[in-house]
Amino acid sequence: MLPETYVKGFHDEEQIQKMTYNDFGNTGLKVSTISFGTGVFCYAYNDIDLEECRQTLTRALKSGINYIDTAPYYGHGECEEILGQILQGIPRQAYYIATKVCRYNKEIKSQFDFTAEKAKESIDLSLKRLKLDYVDILQVHDIEFAPSLDIVLNETLPAIQEIVNSGKARFIGVTGYPVKQLADLVATSKIKLDVVLSYARLTLFDDSLSQYLPLFKKHKLAIINAAAHALGLLTNTGEKPWHVASKHIKDVCAQARKLCVQNDIELGKLALWHSLQQQGPDTTLIGIDSLKIVDYSLEVLHHGLNADEQRVYKQVLEIFATNLNEKHWENYEVNKYWELIRMLS
Protein backbone atom coordinates (compact mmCIF):
# COMPACT_ATOMS: atom_id res chain seq x y z
CA MET A 1 0.00 0.00 0.00
CA LEU A 2 1.40 3.38 -1.01
CA PRO A 3 1.78 6.00 1.76
CA GLU A 4 -0.13 9.29 1.65
CA THR A 5 3.17 11.01 0.88
CA TYR A 6 3.43 9.17 -2.45
CA VAL A 7 3.28 11.53 -5.45
CA LYS A 8 2.93 9.92 -8.87
CA GLY A 9 5.52 11.28 -11.28
CA PHE A 10 7.85 12.37 -8.47
CA HIS A 11 8.59 9.17 -6.60
CA ASP A 12 10.36 6.02 -7.73
CA GLU A 13 7.40 3.70 -7.16
CA GLU A 14 9.59 0.58 -7.03
CA GLN A 15 11.61 2.12 -4.19
CA ILE A 16 8.44 3.24 -2.42
CA GLN A 17 7.11 -0.32 -2.52
CA LYS A 18 10.32 -1.53 -0.83
CA MET A 19 10.23 1.05 1.97
CA THR A 20 8.69 0.18 5.33
CA TYR A 21 6.36 2.81 6.78
CA ASN A 22 5.51 2.74 10.48
CA ASP A 23 2.67 4.19 12.51
CA PHE A 24 4.01 7.43 13.96
CA GLY A 25 2.61 7.18 17.46
CA ASN A 26 -0.98 8.34 17.58
CA THR A 27 -0.60 11.03 14.90
CA GLY A 28 -2.10 9.01 12.05
CA LEU A 29 1.07 9.59 9.98
CA LYS A 30 3.00 6.74 8.39
CA VAL A 31 6.70 7.51 8.55
CA SER A 32 9.60 5.80 6.78
CA THR A 33 11.85 3.58 8.91
CA ILE A 34 14.78 5.89 8.09
CA SER A 35 14.33 9.65 8.29
CA PHE A 36 16.43 12.54 7.04
CA GLY A 37 18.34 14.78 9.47
CA THR A 38 19.48 18.10 8.02
CA GLY A 39 21.65 19.42 10.85
CA VAL A 40 24.55 18.65 8.50
CA PHE A 41 23.21 21.22 6.01
CA CYS A 42 25.20 24.00 7.70
CA TYR A 43 28.81 25.13 8.02
CA ALA A 44 29.16 23.75 11.56
CA TYR A 45 29.45 20.37 9.85
CA ASN A 46 30.48 20.94 6.25
CA ASP A 47 31.39 23.21 3.41
CA ILE A 48 27.89 23.51 2.02
CA ASP A 49 27.17 22.89 -1.66
CA LEU A 50 23.55 23.74 -2.40
CA GLU A 51 23.35 21.51 -5.46
CA GLU A 52 24.75 18.51 -3.57
CA CYS A 53 22.25 19.12 -0.78
CA ARG A 54 19.48 19.30 -3.38
CA GLN A 55 20.52 16.06 -5.06
CA THR A 56 20.92 14.27 -1.73
CA LEU A 57 17.53 15.24 -0.31
CA THR A 58 15.75 14.67 -3.61
CA ARG A 59 17.17 11.16 -4.01
CA ALA A 60 16.23 10.31 -0.42
CA LEU A 61 12.65 11.51 -0.90
CA LYS A 62 12.22 9.83 -4.28
CA SER A 63 13.46 6.60 -2.68
CA GLY A 64 10.74 6.68 -0.02
CA ILE A 65 12.22 8.52 2.95
CA ASN A 66 9.41 10.89 3.91
CA TYR A 67 10.39 12.59 7.19
CA ILE A 68 12.73 15.61 7.36
CA ASP A 69 14.10 17.09 10.60
CA THR A 70 15.57 20.58 10.92
CA ALA A 71 15.90 23.45 13.43
CA PRO A 72 16.71 27.18 13.53
CA TYR A 73 19.76 26.32 15.66
CA TYR A 74 21.44 24.51 12.77
CA GLY A 75 23.65 27.19 11.30
CA HIS A 76 21.58 29.94 12.96
CA GLY A 77 18.84 29.49 10.36
CA GLU A 78 21.16 28.53 7.52
CA CYS A 79 19.87 24.96 7.38
CA GLU A 80 16.24 26.08 7.15
CA GLU A 81 17.14 28.59 4.42
CA ILE A 82 18.88 25.90 2.35
CA LEU A 83 15.93 23.58 2.83
CA GLY A 84 13.56 26.35 1.79
CA GLN A 85 15.37 26.68 -1.52
CA ILE A 86 15.41 22.93 -2.15
CA LEU A 87 11.81 22.27 -1.14
CA GLN A 88 10.53 24.76 -3.70
CA GLY A 89 11.10 22.06 -6.32
CA ILE A 90 9.52 19.22 -4.34
CA PRO A 91 5.77 18.53 -3.94
CA ARG A 92 4.64 19.46 -0.41
CA GLN A 93 2.68 16.21 -0.21
CA ALA A 94 5.89 14.19 -0.59
CA TYR A 95 7.26 14.76 2.92
CA TYR A 96 6.59 15.47 6.56
CA ILE A 97 8.83 18.09 8.13
CA ALA A 98 9.71 18.94 11.71
CA THR A 99 11.45 22.00 13.08
CA LYS A 100 12.11 23.24 16.60
CA VAL A 101 11.99 26.19 18.98
CA CYS A 102 14.00 27.26 22.06
CA ARG A 103 17.58 26.73 20.82
CA TYR A 104 18.80 29.36 18.38
CA ASN A 105 22.51 30.18 18.03
CA LYS A 106 26.02 29.65 19.39
CA GLU A 107 26.13 32.79 21.55
CA ILE A 108 25.89 31.63 25.15
CA LYS A 109 23.61 34.43 26.41
CA SER A 110 21.10 34.08 23.57
CA GLN A 111 21.49 30.41 22.69
CA PHE A 112 18.34 29.33 24.53
CA ASP A 113 15.00 31.01 25.06
CA PHE A 114 12.04 29.00 26.33
CA THR A 115 9.56 31.88 26.49
CA ALA A 116 6.22 31.79 24.71
CA GLU A 117 6.95 35.04 22.90
CA LYS A 118 10.18 33.72 21.40
CA ALA A 119 8.54 30.43 20.34
CA LYS A 120 5.83 32.30 18.42
CA GLU A 121 8.40 34.57 16.81
CA SER A 122 10.60 31.59 15.94
CA ILE A 123 7.97 29.54 14.10
CA ASP A 124 7.15 32.54 11.91
CA LEU A 125 10.83 32.93 11.02
CA SER A 126 11.18 29.20 10.37
CA LEU A 127 8.19 29.15 8.03
CA LYS A 128 9.59 32.16 6.19
CA ARG A 129 12.96 30.47 5.73
CA LEU A 130 11.39 27.16 4.73
CA LYS A 131 8.91 28.93 2.42
CA LEU A 132 6.09 26.84 3.91
CA ASP A 133 2.67 27.56 5.37
CA TYR A 134 3.04 24.97 8.13
CA VAL A 135 5.30 22.26 9.55
CA ASP A 136 4.05 18.84 10.56
CA ILE A 137 5.90 18.68 13.89
CA LEU A 138 7.08 21.53 16.14
CA GLN A 139 9.46 20.44 18.88
CA VAL A 140 10.96 21.94 22.03
CA HIS A 141 14.69 21.73 21.33
CA ASP A 142 16.86 20.21 24.08
CA ILE A 143 14.68 20.57 27.15
CA GLU A 144 17.59 19.89 29.51
CA PHE A 145 18.87 23.45 28.97
CA ALA A 146 15.72 25.07 30.32
CA PRO A 147 16.11 26.82 33.71
CA SER A 148 13.58 24.23 34.93
CA LEU A 149 11.01 21.88 33.45
CA ASP A 150 8.36 24.23 34.83
CA ILE A 151 8.93 26.82 32.09
CA VAL A 152 8.69 24.11 29.43
CA LEU A 153 5.48 22.72 30.98
CA ASN A 154 3.79 26.02 31.75
CA GLU A 155 5.01 28.40 29.06
CA THR A 156 6.74 26.74 26.09
CA LEU A 157 4.31 23.87 25.52
CA PRO A 158 1.16 26.02 25.89
CA ALA A 159 2.67 28.40 23.32
CA ILE A 160 3.27 25.52 20.92
CA GLN A 161 -0.32 24.40 21.48
CA GLU A 162 -1.42 27.88 20.39
CA ILE A 163 0.80 27.58 17.32
CA VAL A 164 -0.82 24.23 16.49
CA ASN A 165 -4.27 25.76 16.98
CA SER A 166 -3.30 28.50 14.52
CA GLY A 167 -2.48 25.95 11.81
CA LYS A 168 1.25 26.70 11.65
CA ALA A 169 2.10 23.22 12.99
CA ARG A 170 0.19 19.96 13.28
CA PHE A 171 1.79 18.07 16.19
CA ILE A 172 3.88 18.78 19.29
CA GLY A 173 7.22 17.19 20.11
CA VAL A 174 10.05 17.38 22.63
CA THR A 175 13.74 16.58 22.19
CA GLY A 176 16.71 16.12 24.48
CA TYR A 177 19.79 14.08 25.36
CA PRO A 178 19.01 13.00 28.98
CA VAL A 179 16.25 10.44 28.44
CA LYS A 180 15.05 10.60 32.05
CA GLN A 181 14.23 14.31 31.69
CA LEU A 182 12.24 13.53 28.56
CA ALA A 183 10.39 10.86 30.53
CA ASP A 184 9.73 13.24 33.44
CA LEU A 185 8.28 15.80 31.05
CA VAL A 186 6.10 13.22 29.31
CA ALA A 187 4.79 11.97 32.64
CA THR A 188 3.83 15.44 33.91
CA SER A 189 2.77 17.43 30.83
CA LYS A 190 -0.83 18.65 30.76
CA ILE A 191 -0.38 19.54 27.10
CA LYS A 192 -0.88 16.52 24.85
CA LEU A 193 2.47 15.50 23.41
CA ASP A 194 2.71 13.65 20.11
CA VAL A 195 6.41 13.05 19.47
CA VAL A 196 9.55 12.42 21.51
CA LEU A 197 13.02 12.61 19.94
CA SER A 198 15.97 11.05 21.75
CA TYR A 199 19.41 11.30 20.17
CA ALA A 200 22.53 9.13 20.43
CA ARG A 201 20.92 6.98 23.14
CA LEU A 202 20.23 3.80 21.15
CA THR A 203 23.53 3.17 19.41
CA LEU A 204 26.32 0.62 19.21
CA PHE A 205 27.53 1.67 22.66
CA ASP A 206 24.55 3.27 24.45
CA ASP A 207 21.15 1.63 24.90
CA SER A 208 19.78 4.11 27.48
CA LEU A 209 16.62 4.81 25.49
CA SER A 210 15.44 1.20 25.82
CA GLN A 211 14.31 1.42 29.44
CA TYR A 212 12.05 4.41 28.70
CA LEU A 213 10.35 3.00 25.61
CA PRO A 214 7.47 1.42 27.60
CA LEU A 215 6.58 4.81 29.13
CA PHE A 216 6.67 6.55 25.77
CA LYS A 217 4.56 3.79 24.24
CA LYS A 218 2.09 4.04 27.14
CA HIS A 219 1.58 7.70 26.26
CA LYS A 220 1.13 6.73 22.58
CA LEU A 221 4.03 8.92 21.49
CA ALA A 222 5.79 8.74 18.17
CA ILE A 223 9.38 7.81 19.04
CA ILE A 224 12.35 9.06 17.02
CA ASN A 225 15.74 7.47 17.59
CA ALA A 226 18.07 10.16 16.27
CA ALA A 227 21.83 10.22 15.72
CA ALA A 228 22.45 6.51 15.20
CA HIS A 229 26.00 7.57 14.29
CA ALA A 230 26.43 9.33 17.67
CA LEU A 231 27.12 12.70 15.99
CA GLY A 232 29.92 11.28 13.84
CA LEU A 233 31.64 9.07 16.42
CA LEU A 234 30.35 5.96 14.67
CA THR A 235 31.52 6.74 11.14
CA ASN A 236 34.78 6.26 9.27
CA THR A 237 35.09 10.04 8.97
CA GLY A 238 34.89 10.54 12.72
CA GLU A 239 33.51 13.27 14.94
CA LYS A 240 33.97 17.02 14.60
CA PRO A 241 36.27 18.89 17.02
CA TRP A 242 33.27 20.30 18.92
CA HIS A 243 31.95 16.87 19.95
CA VAL A 244 31.49 16.86 23.73
CA ALA A 245 32.09 13.15 24.41
CA SER A 246 34.98 12.28 26.71
CA LYS A 247 38.41 11.37 25.39
CA HIS A 248 37.78 7.81 26.56
CA ILE A 249 34.63 7.43 24.45
CA LYS A 250 36.34 9.03 21.46
CA ASP A 251 39.37 6.76 21.80
CA VAL A 252 37.29 3.57 21.91
CA CYS A 253 35.24 4.73 18.93
CA ALA A 254 38.53 5.38 17.15
CA GLN A 255 39.49 1.74 17.75
CA ALA A 256 36.26 0.60 16.13
CA ARG A 257 36.83 3.05 13.27
CA LYS A 258 40.37 1.78 12.68
CA LEU A 259 39.13 -1.80 12.47
CA CYS A 260 36.50 -0.82 9.90
CA VAL A 261 38.95 1.17 7.78
CA GLN A 262 41.40 -1.73 7.80
CA ASN A 263 38.63 -4.00 6.52
CA ASP A 264 37.33 -1.46 3.98
CA ILE A 265 33.96 -1.35 5.74
CA GLU A 266 31.98 1.77 6.67
CA LEU A 267 31.41 1.97 10.43
CA GLY A 268 28.34 4.13 9.72
CA LYS A 269 26.66 1.18 7.99
CA LEU A 270 27.22 -1.03 11.03
CA ALA A 271 25.94 1.67 13.38
CA LEU A 272 22.80 2.23 11.33
CA TRP A 273 22.11 -1.49 11.02
CA HIS A 274 22.46 -1.90 14.78
CA SER A 275 19.99 0.90 15.51
CA LEU A 276 17.52 -0.46 12.98
CA GLN A 277 17.46 -3.78 14.83
CA GLN A 278 16.25 -2.15 18.05
CA GLN A 279 12.54 -2.54 18.74
CA GLY A 280 10.43 0.44 19.77
CA PRO A 281 11.36 3.56 17.77
CA ASP A 282 9.10 4.42 14.83
CA THR A 283 11.93 5.90 12.78
CA THR A 284 15.71 6.16 12.93
CA LEU A 285 16.85 9.69 12.14
CA ILE A 286 20.32 10.13 10.66
CA GLY A 287 22.23 13.13 9.40
CA ILE A 288 22.55 12.79 5.62
CA ASP A 289 24.84 15.11 3.68
CA SER A 290 25.80 13.04 0.64
CA LEU A 291 24.43 10.65 -1.95
CA LYS A 292 26.83 8.04 -0.55
CA ILE A 293 25.03 8.08 2.81
CA VAL A 294 21.62 7.90 1.14
CA ASP A 295 22.73 4.89 -0.88
CA TYR A 296 24.38 2.94 1.91
CA SER A 297 21.49 3.68 4.27
CA LEU A 298 18.97 2.27 1.81
CA GLU A 299 21.27 -0.70 1.17
CA VAL A 300 21.42 -1.48 4.90
CA LEU A 301 17.67 -1.07 5.26
CA HIS A 302 16.74 -3.25 2.31
CA HIS A 303 19.56 -5.82 2.32
CA GLY A 304 21.20 -5.77 5.76
CA LEU A 305 24.92 -6.49 6.15
CA ASN A 306 26.97 -8.86 4.03
CA ALA A 307 29.11 -11.62 5.57
CA ASP A 308 32.24 -9.46 5.95
CA GLU A 309 30.24 -6.63 7.50
CA GLN A 310 28.56 -9.03 9.91
CA ARG A 311 31.98 -10.35 10.97
CA VAL A 312 33.36 -6.88 11.60
CA TYR A 313 30.11 -5.82 13.30
CA LYS A 314 30.61 -8.55 15.91
CA GLN A 315 34.21 -7.42 16.43
CA VAL A 316 33.07 -3.82 16.88
CA LEU A 317 30.54 -4.89 19.50
CA GLU A 318 33.35 -6.72 21.29
CA ILE A 319 35.54 -3.61 21.24
CA PHE A 320 32.82 -1.63 23.00
CA ALA A 321 31.96 -4.43 25.44
CA THR A 322 35.60 -4.93 26.41
CA ASN A 323 37.02 -1.42 26.40
CA LEU A 324 34.27 1.11 27.03
CA ASN A 325 33.81 2.17 30.65
CA GLU A 326 31.19 4.87 30.04
CA LYS A 327 28.50 5.12 27.41
CA HIS A 328 27.29 8.71 27.37
CA TRP A 329 28.26 12.35 27.95
CA GLU A 330 25.13 13.37 29.83
CA ASN A 331 25.31 16.63 31.83
CA TYR A 332 28.70 17.66 30.42
CA GLU A 333 27.33 20.18 27.94
CA VAL A 334 24.57 21.39 30.29
CA ASN A 335 26.96 21.94 33.21
CA LYS A 336 29.40 23.80 30.96
CA TYR A 337 26.57 25.98 29.64
CA TRP A 338 25.39 27.05 33.11
CA GLU A 339 28.97 27.62 34.25
CA LEU A 340 29.47 30.02 31.33
CA ILE A 341 26.14 31.74 32.05
CA ARG A 342 27.26 32.35 35.66
CA MET A 343 30.60 33.73 34.47
CA LEU A 344 28.84 36.15 32.10
CA SER A 345 26.28 37.30 34.66
UniProtKB/TrEMBL annotation:
Record-annotated NADP-dependent oxidoreductase domain positions: 34-310
Source superkingdom: Eukaryota
GO cellular component: cytosol
InterPro entries named among the record's database cross-references: AKR, LGALDH-like, NAD(P)_OxRdtase_dom_sf, NADP_OxRdtase_dom
Pfam families: Aldo_ket_red
UniProt cross-references to SUPFAM superfamilies, sorted A to Z: NAD(P)-linked oxidoreductase (SSF51430)
One example GO MF annotation: L-galactose dehydrogenase activity
Stated name of the protein: NADP-dependent oxidoreductase domain-containing protein
